[in-house]
Q: What sequence folds into this?
């Protein structure tokens, strides 16, 4: 019986969480869930699949079209989103992580899993409020009340910079997995190196004084 | 600009909430949202549409297929659901109301609406944990944190029996709307009078000493 469910986007952060969860729970005790929500770049899902295949860890893709119906936004449409919160980036979908974690919890509930792991973090990112510690703590309580079932939401990256995240996965012995991840907002591979995501990633590696295996694949 | 969003299933409870919200916010200040989630009986959505049309209130139907992908359950499939919680009824979908309210909140956010109204209640019902006061209070906080936007979740029926709910809508002058609602689990109209939902509804009217306009339509 699995003990923990990792929300896996195929990106650098959730792959680091996967490495963290392997150490904490044991590789045989974890599984992953990814969301096919109409994102522009299906390469995210391909990355998640490749990484899990390499590690021999189960990866379930849950399809949901609800964002498409909810409204236009920059992650599912090629448009600038307008929101009442001017300070938020154009990729903002209100409450997206609450939505994903609620689905993950429902999936976990049916499988007797109590531990959820997500790569949200307060640092580096552009102020998505649903990535913050207070949202996650409150959501943990909401899900536990709402399903009458004790959940623990683990957020190992919450207060780490991107550089610290690089150091963490290296320390865990899985830096090589990052060669299979996807980061570029433009969906390019090799990455464009110019979009905010590519720049943020590069800065992290630079500060950690490491080479990004995605840019210099050896395998 | 609307001020409140009512989650409207087309049933007795959410129709009572609609009458309550008309009084509290004014008919011109409210709109409704219904979810097309693959329920067995589309007649629920037809009821919501008819009621809102009669009142000249906007009704948005948000389609989501995620429950279908999440797993089998008695509301979307004609099967008995097995869950780890034996005490819960077979129609239980873990976290369903959290999911619906999160979607409603995202919809409300984009429209500058802060007030959400839902017909969940602790009484009469069969112990769905996501209908309880503690879940709703916690969810209100989670959504407000997660969207950095103050939500208020109104639950006017939380501690009312079905009889009190009948009395409430009568007092609000809208008992007649119940002729357009849908309750029967078997999807029948006229209702089957035998399923748990029909029995619960009948008991409420009996205790309130009122006739159900659904059974004796006059218009």
A:
């Amino acid at each position: 019986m699995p003990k923990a469910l990792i929300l896996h986007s195929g990106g650098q952060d959730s792959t680091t969480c996967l490495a963290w969860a392997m150490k904490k729970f044991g590789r045989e005790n974890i599984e992953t869930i990814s969301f096919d929500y109409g994102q522009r770049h299906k390469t995210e899902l391909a990355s998640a699949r490749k990484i899990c295949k390499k590690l021999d860890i189960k990866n379930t893709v849950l399809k949901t079209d609800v964002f498409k119906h909810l409204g236009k936004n920059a992650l599912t449409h090629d448009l600038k989103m307008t929101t009442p919160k001017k300070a938020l980036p154009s990729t903002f979908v209100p409450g997206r992580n609450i939505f994903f974690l609620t689905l993950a919890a429902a999936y976990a509930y049916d499988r007797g899993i109590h531990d959820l792991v997500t790569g949200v973090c307060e640092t580096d990112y552009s102020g998505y409020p649903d990535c913050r510690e207070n949202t996650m703590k409150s959501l943990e309580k909401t899900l536990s009340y709402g399903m009458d079932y004790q959940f623990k939401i683990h957020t190992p990256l919450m207060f780490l910079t991107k550089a610290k995240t690089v150091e963490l996965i290296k320390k865990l012995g899985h830096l090589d997995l990052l060669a299979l991840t996807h980061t570029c907002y433009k969906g390019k591979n090799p990455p464009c190196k110019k979009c905010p995501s590519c720049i943020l990633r590069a800065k992290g590696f630079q500060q950690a004084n490491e080479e990004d295996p995605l840019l210099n694949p050896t395998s």
